[in-house]
Structures are given as structure tokens and as C-alpha cells.
Design brief:
single chain, 9-stranded mixed β-sheet, two-stranded antiparallel ribbon, globular
Length: about 325
Amino acid sequence: MRTRAALLFLLLLTSLLEAQTTPTTNRQGTADLGMSYGIRIGPGMNSASVGDESYHNNAEPHRKRVLAWIDISNGYQHDSVSHAVATIERLGYETGAYDTFIRTDSHAITKGTVTGSDGQPLLYAKNLNDFDAIFFFGVREIDLAASQKKDLLAFVHDDGKGFVAAHAGATAFFSWPDFGEMLGGRFDEHPWGITDAPVLVEDNNFPGMTNLPPTFQHIDEYYQIKDFSRARAHVLLRLDVSKLDMTVPLVHHKEADFPLAWAKSYGKGRVYYSALGHDPSTWDDRAVQQMYFEALRWALHLTDAEITPRPLPAEAKPLR
């Protein structure tokens, strides 16, 4: 027994010595499983790398990063915001497509130093330079300094990054015209409240639309959009208003063009908006999850798509 125990001890000692002398290239400590060239290839971020300075100073390669920005300090707590952001984070985590950083404030909307309430730089804080796209579900007026507004527009327009906005994101920054120009349209009431209505797919070749039928029924709070032009955006979904009461008081448009989702360029960057997502349960719909997941992949330049603006399809019936 003593001979066997001694042999096992020698084998263990030899293994430990080999581990100490074997060179490593990714410096990920004990969390190396699923790593390839320092980048996690399975679900989730590498637990060691998140606490490693190399992850935060970009010394090591990393996956695409998404800033989930949900500042609602001057608006209201939309019921679906929490579940929506949790879903976006989970989709990136489980697929390994991107890492999500969730902020309920707007301190990260800058290319300068991110500071705390005491004016001191925050440890491991990231600014816009550290992200590849923004998922936005903020509402109403958000307090941004002039420099922050400039940096946000440059993040998309000049740096070629992505901006994906969901549902109530179209209600934000009414007092800031440049934001509306970047997004492509503005909220203009929801005349029918929450209703079951047919949705028309205008481009089933765009990522996230490929598995949808030409028309599908969906329950949501459908937005009416203003300040929108088909000359500047590629419509993906529109509401079939021929099945809705167009005499209700809040209907401001008298044409059949009620876009629900679109993709567009803004300078070098990519912008996507969808009005779907009012109820928390909507974010459990696999079709809706696929739409937003593929929208983010497109915004992150992980996929490509044709987004040439097109006119309203000829078969769309004019309203009487």
C-alpha cells in the first residue's frame, strides 16, 4: 500500500510540475474551458477574464460587446423593460454571440472618462469606445450633456457602430431632432391600445425575418410613427391597418403605411427599430426573440443584409 501511495504522490507531483512549466497563451487561470485564442467560444463570459484587468483594458481579445441602455429616470418604468433586457442578455450569453453590459443610467454614454457621483473615475467603467452596439429601451427625455449627445451620434455615424431600439425607445428625446433623424421615426400615439392585428412582412430575407410567414397575427401595443420616410429606411414589418378601425380619435395618418420595424444606415453605422415588445410575455415569443437577436447580430456587423430604401408595396390598398 505504501508503494502504491508513493507512486500516486509522484504522479501527482509530476503533473503539478508540468502544469507550472507548460506555457499558456490566454492567461485565463482555472476558467480555460471553452476558450480559443482568449475568447470564450461557449455560453457566457469567462469568469476569470471578467475580473482580469486584461479584459477591461482590451489587452486580450474578446467578443462583441453590447451596451443595454435603459435610462428611465425621467419617464416611466415600462412593464417589459426588465424582461426585455434580461432576454437580450441571455440570448448573447447562451449563444456566445456577444457580451451584454446593462446600465440603467447614462454615465456610459460618453467617449470620455466615466465618473461616479463623487466626480471620481469608476473602477472598470466602460465608455462608448468599449462597445460595438447599443440596445436601447429608454423612454422620454433623458438627461445628456451636449458632449454626450455628440459622442452618441458619433458612435454610430462616425465609428460605424450599431444602435438597436425597442418599442418605447421611439418615445425618447422628443426635444432632440438629431436623435429622431438617427432612429428614423418618432412615436405618435398608439390609437388602438393593445390589440390583436395582422402584421405584414415586407422583407423576409432580412435576418430574423426569414422564418416568418408573409402575414402573421400578433398581439401588441402598436405604435403610430411620425417623422418617418421610406426614402431613408428599409421597412421590414408594417401593420395591416385594413383590418383596424381607422376612425378612432388618435389616428393621425390617413394612408396605409404604418411601419413597425425598419433598418437603416446612419453614416457608417447601422440602426434598427422595432415597435414590438410592449408586454413582458412578448419577449418569450421565439419569433420576437429571433428578430431582436438577429437585429443585434446585424448591427454588430456579424451578418449583412440589403437595406436599400423601398417605396410602399404596390399591393398596399389606400385607405378610404
